[in-house]
Amino acid sequence: MSDQSKDNNQDKKDERGPLRTLTGASRDLRKYTHQIWLAGLGAFARAEEEGSGFFDALVEAGRQVEKHTREKAPRVEDIKERVRHHTGETMDRMEKAFDDRLSKALSRLGIPNKREVEALQRRVQELTDALERMEDEESEPESKPRDPE
């Protein structure tokens, strides 16, 4: 098969879309699972042919693999946790650096930060309260009696 036709086949595969890709992956998984099943049947058939010694050797090999895997599992879990922790710290540092740079850029553009906006809101509220007090004082009837004219 020429490189040209391989490229064309690859392009066709890429155009299949995600659903077809999943279908293909599912088919590949079934094929692989079937191959594992056949390997197991083959091992069983060979064990029958060669006697119980071969079967016992397979069982012992399986035990060793299982033991080795179980011994490594805590170490793998520890490494995974350290990577997760390190990744979290790195993300925190990146987020802080991004926030700092964004804050500086907004400041250069004259856009107030959260603290400045909150201070402005408090000041507006103080002025609103003062105006309301003044309006209340103006609308109250005067307590002094009026001079008759």
From TrEMBL:
Biased composition (Basic and acidic residues): 1-18
InterPro entries xrefs: PhaF_PhaI
Disordered: annotated span: 1-26, 126-149
Highest taxon above the source species: Bacteria
PANTHER family, alphabetized: SLR0058 PROTEIN
UniProt xrefs under NCBIfam families: PHA_granule_1 (TIGR01837)
Protein name: Phasin family protein
